[in-house]
Amino acid sequence: MDKAERRQALLRAARTVFSEKGYHEAKVDDIVALAKVAKGTFYLYFPDKRSVFGELVRGLFSRLGGAILRVDPSADVEAQVKHNIRAIVAVLLDDPALTSILLSHAAGLDPAFVKELRAFRQEVKLLLQQSLAEGQRLGVIEPGDTELYATFTIGALKEVLFENALEEQARPRERIVTALHDFLRRGYLRMDPAAGLAARGPEGERAAPATGDAPGEAPERVSPSRGRRARSRGD
Amino acid sequence: MDKAERRQALLRAARTVFSEKGYHEAKVDDIVALAKVAKGTFYLYFPDKRSVFGELVRGLFSRLGGAILRVDPSADVEAQVKHNIRAIVAVLLDDPALTSILLSHAAGLDPAFVKELRAFRQEVKLLLQQSLAEGQRLGVIEPGDTELYATFTIGALKEVLFENALEEQARPRERIVTALHDFLRRGYLRMDPAAGLAARGPEGERAAPATGDAPGEAPERVSPSRGRRARSRGD
Amino acid sequence: MDKAERRQALLRAARTVFSEKGYHEAKVDDIVALAKVAKGTFYLYFPDKRSVFGELVRGLFSRLGGAILRVDPSADVEAQVKHNIRAIVAVLLDDPALTSILLSHAAGLDPAFVKELRAFRQEVKLLLQQSLAEGQRLGVIEPGDTELYATFTIGALKEVLFENALEEQARPRERIVTALHDFLRRGYLRMDPAAGLAARGPEGERAAPATGDAPGEAPERVSPSRGRRARSRGD
Amino acid sequence: MDKAERRQALLRAARTVFSEKGYHEAKVDDIVALAKVAKGTFYLYFPDKRSVFGELVRGLFSRLGGAILRVDPSADVEAQVKHNIRAIVAVLLDDPALTSILLSHAAGLDPAFVKELRAFRQEVKLLLQQSLAEGQRLGVIEPGDTELYATFTIGALKEVLFENALEEQARPRERIVTALHDFLRRGYLRMDPAAGLAARGPEGERAAPATGDAPGEAPERVSPSRGRRARSRGD
DNA sequence: GATGAATGAGCTTTCATTCAT
DNA sequence: AATGAATGAAAGCTCATTCAT
């Protein structure tokens, strides 16, 4: 096994372990055990634990960066949007292990690394936001707060991919793409603009109290049941 | 200071420390220092570090559970939806510290606890999904995959709240509520059904290749810049 | 490059590295890097790290042994003494790297090796002591404790060479030789036996208390200033 | 056992272990084993291994600094010199363990600490040198290179104390003081200035070759015997 | 109840040494 | 002979948890 292969093997092992246990619970011992090398070997290929993690995340970043196209408003916008959705989904679905690291386990690292993660998030968001603003000028995007739209979009996308990474759902890729696209295009709440308003009558946009309940009724509340946590040790 | 107060003081301190440092970087020493009690005292009120964390999270859950109403399809659906959005936003915005823990730092805990978190997520999602299905029967929800709709919705909501918890954005609460509601109601992609179809012509929903690019063009790619990670020590 | 050359190259590299970093900080990696051979090659020529060190030290020993002459009391003693001083100085000044190892870095080795170093020191000292005793019989050495005289002499010599090895001082060799010789011949405290006693009056050799101060005065004390130690890592 | 006692116990244990094994070979495990506490306890009292060592050395420094008096040339110089010798000897003989650390094991520490040690050495030396220069003006010190005199003196003193620390010699304190004082006062080489020159005749200060031997004779060489070093492991 | 000193398992990282090529 | 990748025993240090006072 040559150096590059060994390095790959270690990266693969690290990816698996990180995604299963999260950064802190992943021990170098776990990684080398999975890669079937001695502990010292790990440090022949990476200067420390953090750097493997960083390398994995950065690899995912650059694959994402390589997949996303800046939307050209003079061409077919819808197709481009769909392409981007599809490309992002493809990259992340292809690497559920890393995706789940990125989306949920990335905490507690050193501040500089966390900063890097955030910077990436903001970059992606800014890009999306600018595309939406451009789209508004062209009349293909609804008026409204483009920043919030960007946030919602990213959130929706992340959640789908996160579920997938958790292996709770293994949805056909194209179904995700289509559904997300539809969702972004028309939402799902069908409040017939005319009929709706008419039907609801004058009470209109009655603001429900932010906390507390609507008075005079005993609405059914949702109470999450309690699970039990197991004992092990330490931290 | 009586028992209950002391307990509250510890919980408050723990919440602050957890949200500032994440679960692993938060040391019991930090918590007791902030609460101004001795280390041993901590263990008089909680069996271990994990359990404080669990208690905090469960508290947030139950506040959420208490705020969400099961949608009654015979009454004003839109108002109820908006109420729910508003209620969830209210609970989570009121406790950004815990929210950020929940959304990003919750990794690396023992499997049983992670399971509990997941169970809660699924419960919430199932509830939403059922409401959406009911809504479809009543014609107030677009046809489509209710599960994906639920996922998208939760993701959009999470992301907005996450940004808030990160203090990147401090948006007026009602603006979030309204924007999210609008977003769910009509999306933002305006592809005029008639014009759009006409414009796109017969090729219809041409599937762009999932990976790889459209041929014959050199589209602008997005390349996230690289940050540097700092050295500190160890893990 | 033949075997002997390679061996020499390794010894030279080791000497440099040991003298720059001390035994423990000197890594086998440093040595082979400087010698431009592979790590495994090192172990082809030496059984282990310690043995290179031992060989270097032993080489210095034997050069010293070869330089020192047993003083023949029937010949010109002073010249012989001076010769010996000169010879020792020559050997050690020619190899400041090794000298500094020997004088300051030689700690923390395995007990057997330390024993060997001590044995050498004692041998040299015994030799000197015997010469001094002989000299006393011949009337060319002051009466007094020859063992202490030997110790003082060795110490004075070591210190001068040590300073040189530290590169704090680069003194002309002959000046060292002459000064040391003068020092050994007459010391430097000039307490004119007659005048001195007269001047000091009857109190004579008042013994100052070994610890504590002479009463009734507040003599100026010497207080070394404090430096700060830097943080690096580990050991 | 209260905090101060425990701290002392750890310092004592560290002193013993350091002086027996040198800094690098002394393991924190050794220290805590000797002090009969758990490893963690060590770190309750000292931030790291280096700092105990530093504290020990600094303690010795300050005891030395406290013992040495700046020589007042208007008073009885000889007595003051003797006092200083006596004081230094007292401090160092009282703590042979630390003395041996200071004199031989102090290598391989982090550069900043080594610098501190050197600074102390230079301070002491400078003090002595200045006193000697002053003495020369007053006619109580022989003309000559005061810096070399200072170096010789320190070396002689160190060596005596070092031997003592090694437990090779347990000499009565006052004998050391007297012998050193005598040594400094008149050396030991008795070359009767007048007779000597006459006796030696015209050959005077014939310079023996710096290396190589006087020709025409086969002088007896000193060859240190070889010891054997034992095998253990590693470094 | 409250305290905080003591504990020790466990972690990351280093590096002398080995050995297949 | 030469190489350099692989090894794994140790080391320093951390911190959740315990327990005598």
UniProtKB/TrEMBL annotation, chains A, B, C, D:
UniProt KW keywords: DNA-binding, Transcription, Transcription regulation
Sequence ranges of Basic residues compositional bias: 226-235
Protein name, entry field: Transcriptional regulator, TetR family
Keyword Transcription included in the entry's annotation: yes
Pfam families in the cross-refs: TetR_C_24, TetR_N
Gene3D superfamilies hit by this protein: Homeodomain-like, Tetracycline Repressor, domain 2
DNA-binding region: 27-46
Domain called HTH tetR-type: residue spans: 4-64
Organism, as annotated: Sorangium cellulosum (strain So ce56)
UniProt GO MF annotations: DNA-binding transcription factor activity; transcription cis-regulatory region binding
Residue spans crossing the bilayer: none
Region ranges (Disordered): 196-235
Signal peptide limits: none
InterPro entries assigned to the protein according to its UniProt record, in alphabetical order: Homeodomain-like_sf, HTH-type_TetR-like_transc_reg, HTH_TetR, KstR2_TetR_C, Tet_transcr_reg_TetR-rel_C_sf
